[in-house]
Amino acid sequence: KHTMVEIKSSAKKRLKQQDLVMIIFRLFADEYENSNAKSIWDIKLPIDQIKTILKERHNVSYRSNLWIYTQLKRYEEDSGVRLFKKEQKGKNNQSFNLSIYDSMLTFTQKQHLYVTGKIKIANGVNDKIRNSLINRPLDQPLTIMLGAGSSIYHVADILAEHSRTFLHQFRIYTHNLGVIQRLLAPDVDTTKFELYTPSGRIDPVTYCVVSQDSDFYETVPFDFIIQGTSVVHNGNLYIESGTETNIKEAILHHCRGEKILILTKHECKDQPLSSHTYGKISDYDFLIVPRFQKNIAHKKNYEEEFEQYRENFTPIIMNWNYEILAAKR
Question: Is 60 exceeded by the pLDDT of residue 7?
Answer without folding.
Answer: no
